[in-house]
Amino acid sequence: MSNHSPLSNESIGPSGTETEQEHDRSSQYLHSVKGPAQFLSFWVAIALPFLHVPLLAQGLGDSSVILTFLVLLAINVVALYLGHGYNQD
To answer: Which UniProt keywords apply (predicted)?
Structure first.
């Protein structure tokens, strides 16, 4: 006669080393994505204002032009924030 437990081993949480390995893996992934994301954000923040010039030259009389300008401005602010630390030692 065997004594079966009502709980299987799967219901017990992962051991500390498994949790640490998952954390290390996610930390390593975030670190590998951070550099390219900062690079892209930095250059988008530099290039995006050149799209503002034709919109401003055309004039902001139309509501769709105003909306486009504001969306581009918001994207530029986000890109500046994300890319501000690029290539700093």
So the answer is: Membrane, Transmembrane, Transmembrane helix
